[in-house]
């Protein structure tokens, strides 16, 4: 029995090398993204970047809205019925 279990879940916080490999970015591309005001910053304590924040950044950039981000209302405002149209 194998006592060493490996999980395929990527780490939550990544250094630049891991971030580039995970997202398929070149060093130049990551440096350019870091210059934009909306790209997630490195955590000052760990000196790593939150992978989930970068996922959300790319989702928003691609027009994909995440319900976890609070961009989607839980319930829509009811409107007037128009069944006879």
UniProtKB/TrEMBL annotation:
Species name: Aquamicrobium zhengzhouense
Protein name stated in the entry: Uncharacterized protein
């Amino acid at each position: 029995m194998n006592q060493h279990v490996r999980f395929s879940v990527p780490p939550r916080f990544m250094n630049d090398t891991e971030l580039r490999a995970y997202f398929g970015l070149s060093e130049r591309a990551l440096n350019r993204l870091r210059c934009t005001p909306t790209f997630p910053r490195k955590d000052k304590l760990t000196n790593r970047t939150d992978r989930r924040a970068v996922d959300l950044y790319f989702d928003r950039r691609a027009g994909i809205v995440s319900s976890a981000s609070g961009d989607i209302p839980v319930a829509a405002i009811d409107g007037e019925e128009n069944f006879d149209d």
